[in-house]
Design brief:
heterodimer, A: 824 residues, alpha+beta, Aldehyde Oxidoreductase, domain 4, seven-stranded mixed beta sheet, five-stranded mixed beta sheet, 28 strands, globular, B: 162 residues, DNA polymerase, domain 1, 5 helices
């Protein structure tokens, strides 16, 4: 490889100039001749039987070109095959792109209209007449599993869609030798990353091919869905700029791709459908509400020797993602700790709420919440310091590479150092001193004595320090750990490609196998190519965003699973390395030199180290430029070496060379759920207004190990954004349902998304410990800080409220809920 | 039923026939093809559709196209000059003040409006002002840094001109 200069630098963003100029190209920015606009009729009921749907009046509205009712959709399409997250179903359940006989959540699609304008399509929706027979709605886990609850799916017999268990080590023996059993019940609510661009699809059908342009994070899901539902062989999926993903745009979007495609087939015209905000809030998919009953077997010195966790997941009104939040807990099941004996029991309960989807970490924030809340609770019960209890259980640096009892292999980590640095950066001792002073003031104020004038509204200071791993690079066989007999092998390990091409003029273009949702993939990949090929990033650009007909994609070609750092980076590095070999082969022939004597710098191939000796151009010594080599490779066979394949283009598919052992689950259910493990310590300092319950985050400090940093500014952005989301989740954002299953938070304001005012200034220190198994030592950065941050805020708020002796067991910590904690 | 409107957009005379119910943002996007102004919520919460109307910051999903009749509108496409980004745009690039880019035109316009009113805002003032807009990607840190950098650049511009 050429000398590294661009990897590790804050290289200028290649994507940003077009976005700041309004030149981004999102699905809704695209238009086609004779294009129609679609709008969807959605269920007003959370649970109801559909008696009839009459669309005559809608069809008669001028400008309406097609209406598809449940009967049409059933006749024109096939149900989706159960994917890896529905493999645990006891009986097969056909799920179509819309509701067919029943609706199971408010907002479930029922019918879709195509019209000349969006406004006409919206008018037409109001003219569709649906007769419903409302059914009792189960709006909570409790309602859904109660005796006599109306089942969402009669064929399942109950609303428990799946239950199962994984167990590692000898948990009973560990509990038998424990000094103490610490018990706690914990809960995480429903939330979402609410990407600012809602779902969007543009379908174009011709006798030759169905082309769908949509903002999918996992185009593979769309590709499969269109093939399955429409029986189409020739499908092309294109993904332009995507206005944020975070997991939201992986699964449910397939329904809408199919509905839009059906309209394109029916009308023989291009059809565009753009979801609106309220549609997205009620039906775009939520992160799962999760309830945990936890027991920890501990020794008197704080060592955790065993853990039993019962996890109940409220998966909403669909079976398609039945176990996704359960299986993702396998990824960080042991967090940063050495415990060897653990049982995780799972139960997926169907409710009349929005189906659940992946969301920035999926089950991992819940798993980290369990661990970090328990560490605090264990410390409290044993009378120990909470940070000391964590340290007692950390995997030590000497143990790496470390294999967790469920088969994950952690390449590297320095967890103690992360904690040390976080404590130093947050001035832990100073915070404790201020806290003591402040508590004295508040005690006097609350007891009626006069405090200082500016202490009229008493606030309590609290600090929470937590640690967590961030798994990266998905193994497609993970879910087989709980479904070893599944006939639907979802794949194994990972495969992902990249193409790098030196153009005839010496510039470089490349294509990645996966779409980007704003994580600076073009910038980062260009830095790698620049260093490998020896050419300025200014001369490197992305040839096209994802196009299934052009992009070298595989099972890992998904803007999810923290995949980019492992698969895309490996693929683009591999393709560039192979292209460099090819380029040097040609250059050696042209220069009549031994390949080993050639040096590349800034788009020129030199003989020896002439450039460093002072030669500034090809004229001063034997040299050949990329442009000259490009001209030969594409147009002059006479100057090529014998047997040389023309062109300067390489496609390379990367698979993790260290995917074994445990790529496939063994008989004990051990499998490598993911392949790399970043880690971070978070320290949150909060002030709680005792009168209003409002929590203000005063400082938020992160020390993060993301391995080798390719672009620190990009990684910073991922950490800032994921932390801000986790903090907002903890502080109050979330979906709220009425007991009738109606969503009460249909807008971003009601939902409670944090703005610039509530979001703290987040401070980051990088502590990179390179991964021994990845291409450049890199680890993941994406889901990142969304995993530990809810736990950090919970810890800090509990610490602040310790004078009241309250326990934080549930999120969110909205003012109302904190006030209730304070006031019993 | 439509109504004819005439307005100035990014310095050019524009017009069109619009339904009375057509929102300004949809007129700009669908009839003028200025797709840099985005729709994230259509109820004035997210700010992705922020533009300037007669110099004032407006969420163009909260304004009907007919209300803009006779007005001077500036959208994100009108901020830069050929070959050069506006200092606010440049600062957002330099500071990685964006990720997916969907909220970015709105944040750039809102930041531009802020710096026109208050050329040297504190971090607190920046955060208070930009709470009109939502970004789901960045956690706002690099956006705030970008606004600070833009303020410095604009100050240098003013100084060098006088």
């Amino acid at each position: 490889m050429a000398d590294i200069t661009h990897i590790g630098s804050r290289a200028r963003s290649k994507e940003a100039p077009r976005h700041v100029s309004g030149r981004g190209q999102y699905v809704d920015d695209l238009s086609r001749p004779r294009m129609l606009h679609a709008c969807i009729l959605r269920s007003p009921y959370a649970h109801a039987r559909i008696i009839s749907v009459r669309a005559d009046a809608a069809m008669k509205l001028p400008g309406v070109r097609a209406v598809l009712t449940p009967a049409d959709i059933k006749a024109l399409s096939q149900p989706f095959k159960p994917g890896r997250y529905a493999a645990g179903l006891r009986v097969p359940i056909a799920e179509y792109a819309s509701a067919i006989e029943k609706v199971r959540y408010a907002g479930e699609p029922i019918a879709i209209v195509a019209a000349d304008t969006r406004a006409i399509a919206e008018d037409a929706i109001e003219l569709i007449d649906v007769d419903y027979e409302p059914l009792p709605a189960a709006a909570s886990i409790e309602d859904a599993v109660a005796d006599g609850a109306t089942p969402l799916y009669e064929e399942l017999g109950s609303n428990v869609g799946w239950q199962g268990k994984v167990s590692y080590g000898d948990v009973d023996a560990a509990f038998a030798r424990a000094d103490r059993i610490v018990r706690e019940s914990l809960k995480i609510h429903r939330y979402s990353s609410t990407p600012l661009e809602p779902f969007a699809c543009l379908a174009e059908h011709s006798p030759e091919r169905m082309t769908i342009t949509c903002n999918s994070q996992s185009p593979d899901v769309i590709y499969e869905a269109l093939s399955e539902a429409l029986g189409l062989d020739a499908v092309r999926v294109r993904v332009p700029d995507v206005g944020g993903g975070f997991g939201q745009k992986i699964h449910l979007i397939r329904k809408y791709a199919v509905l839009t495609a059906l309209l394109a087939v029916k009308t023989r015209r291009p059809v565009k459908w753009i979801e609106d905000r309220s549609e997205h809030m009620m039906a775009g998919g939520h992160s799962c509400e999760q309830e945990f009953d936890v027991e920890a077997a501990v020794k008197a010195d704080g060592e955790v020797i065993g853990m039993k966790i019962r996890d109940t997941d409220d998966v909403g009104g669909s079976v398609s993602t039945l176990t996704i939040h359960f299986t993702n807990k396998l990824n960080n099941l042991f967090n940063t700790y050495t415990v060897q004996h653990l049982t995780l029991e799972g139960r997926s309960v169907l409710t009349n709420k929005c189906p659940v989807v992946p969301n920035r970490g999926i089950g991992k924030p819940g798993m980290c919440f369990v661990w970090e809340r328990m560490m605090d609770r264990i410390a409290q019960e044993l009378g120990l310091d909470a940070i000391a209890v964590r340290r007692r259980n950390l995997i030590p640096p000497s143990a790496f590479p470390y294999t967790t009892p469920n088969g994950n292999i952690y390449g590297s980590g320095e967890y103690d150092t992360l904690l040390d640095k976080a404590l130093k950066n947050v001035d832990y001792d100073g915070v404790r001193q201020r806290q003591a002073t402040q508590r004295g003031l508040v005690a006097r104020t609350l007891s009626g004595s006069r405090g200082e004038p500016d202490k009229a509204r008493p606030t309590l200071l609290g600090i929470g320090v937590v640690i967590g791993v961030e798994p990266g690079g998905r193994n497609a066989a993970r879910d087989m750990a709980i479904f070893p007999k599944s006939k639907q092998m979802p794949g194994a390990g990972g495969v992902e490609g990249a193409t790098v091409k030196i153009e005839k003029n010496g510039s470089v273009v490349f294509t990645l196998g996966s779409p980007s949702c704003g994580q600076s993939h073009e910038t980062t990949a260009a830095q790698i190519i620049a260093d490998v090929l020896g050419v300025s990033p200014d001369r490197i650009s992305l040839a096209t965003t994802y196009d299934s007909a052009l992009s070298p994609w595989g099972v890992s070609s998904s803007n999810s699973g923290n995949n980019f750092h492992l698969y895309d980076v490996g693929a683009v590095h591999g393709a560039a390395t192979r292209l460099r070999e090819k380029l040097l082969t040609l250059a050696a022939h042209v220069l009549k030199e031994d390949m080993g004597r050639l040096t590349i710098e800034d788009g020129m191939v030199y003989v020896g180290r002439l450039r460093e000796a002072g030669a500034k151009s090809a004229a001063s010594g034997p040299a050949v430029s990329f442009a000259e080599l490009g001209k030969i490779a594409y147009s002059n066979q006479a100057q090529m070496p014998p047997g040389f394949e023309g062109g300067l283009q390489v496609t390379y598919f990367h698979s993790h060379p260290h995917a074994d052992p445990l790529m496939l689950p063994d008989s004990e259910g051990r499998v490598r759920a993911q392949y790399t493990f970043s880690s971070a310590a978070h320290a949150a300092v909060v002030e709680v207004d005792v009168e209003t319950g409002r929590v203000r985050v005063v400082r938020y400090v992160i020390v993060s190990d993301n391995g080798t940093l390719i672009n620190p500014a990009v990684v910073d952005g991922q950490i800032y954004g994921s932390a801000a989301h986790g903090i907002s989740v903890a502080l109050g954002e979330g979906f709220v349902y009425g007991s009738d299953g109606q969503l009460l938070t249909l807008t971003l304001l009601d939902y409670g998304k944090s703005t610039t005012l509530e979001t703290p200034h987040i401070e980051i220190e990088h502590h990179p410990v390179p991964d021994p198994f990845t291409t450049l030592g890199q680890k993941a950065a994406g889901e990142g800080a969304a995993i530990p941050s809810p736990a950090a805020i919970a810890s800090a708020v509990e610490d602040a409220l310790s004078p009241f002796g309250v326990k934080v067991r549930d999120l969110p910590l909205s003012p109302e809920r904190v006030w209730r904690l304070i006031n019993g | 039923m439509t109504r004819a409107i005439a307005l100035t957009v990014n310095g050019e005379q524009c017009g069109g026939d619009v339904e009375p119910r057509t929102l300004l943002v949809h007129f700009l996007r669908d009839q003028l093809g200025l797709t840099g102004t985005h729709v994230g919520c259509v109820v004035g919460e997210c700010g992705a559709c922020s533009i300037l109307v007669d110099g004032a910051l407006v969420k163009s999903c909260l304004m009907l196209a007919v209300q803009a009749d006779g007005c001077a509108v500036t959208t994100i496409e009108g901020l830069s000059t050929p070959g050069a980004l506006h200092p606010v745009q440049e600062a957002f690039v330099n500071r990685f003040g964006l990720q997916c880019g969907f909220c970015t035109p709105g944040f750039v316009m809102a930041s531009h409006a802020l710096l026109m009113r208050n050329p040297n805002p504190t971090e607190e003032e920046i955060r208070r002002d930009l709470s009109s807009n939502l970004c789901m990607c960045t956690g706002y840190v690099q956006i705030v840094e970008a606004v600070k950098e833009a303020a410095v650049t604009l100050e240098q511009w003013r100084t060098s001109r006088t």
